[in-house]
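On clarity, I found the account of how folds are encoded harder to follow than it need be. An entry of this sort, consisting of the sequence and the corresponding backbone structure tokens, reads as follows:
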Amino acid sequence: MKILIANDDGIWADGIRALTTALAAHHEVYVCAPDRERSATGHSMSLHKPLMVTPGKTSDICDKTKAAFMTSGTPADCVKISTGALFKDVKFDLMVSGINHGPNLGVDVLYSGTVSAAMEAMLYGIPSIAFSLYSYTSKEFSEAASWAKDFIEKNEIHKHIEPRSFLNINIPPGPRANYKGIEITRLGNRAYSENYEERQDPRGNKYFWLAGAPIEGLETEGTDGWALMNGRVSITPVLFDMTHYKKIDELKKSLK
């Protein structure tokens, strides 16, 4: 297969290197990723400034990679410029994003650069998957990358992802032997206890720093968070279409 890989943690992140190494063993892999961390950039794009692109040494990422570039832009930028310029003559069978350092559950999909890269590929008609590791502390991605590779190859998953949709997959940390199976899930009730810490710079200017942590105990059986808390790989099919269809007729009548 011809596979495009991007992420939001940056081209030097351990997650993208592990994923690239695993997939490049048997597939034609192309990489385009941000030159620095771009977490929580959502689906933003570089419209008002130049998008700088620098060739990367494939040996720095994976010797078997066909080509690698890093950009000054966002994950969505990486996919757009890959399909529109850098690799415009390549017909990709699959796009994978990640492996993100930390989970992307529930409402996270609205903010995540990892998820947005997969969504951007979906908009170009490329079957796509966002992979995330359910840990902010573990730096071991090889087990998750091995699982992702086997999942893609064994199931020929690119043939089963419907147009205008993509898969959001979260993988437990630790050895694959400890995974307790997979769960096909819905997006859960991820929420955060957020607050802004007020600070002052050396010149006396006020600034704020967003802080907070996930609120535990909100997940119910069948959600992505519930699956991860029970040691399972969470696989959530996500649709692009956010139309509230049940409300259409009601609004038509009430707004006459």
Summary: The CA atoms of residues 180 and 232 lie 5 Å apart. DSSP finds eight helices and eleven strands in the chain.
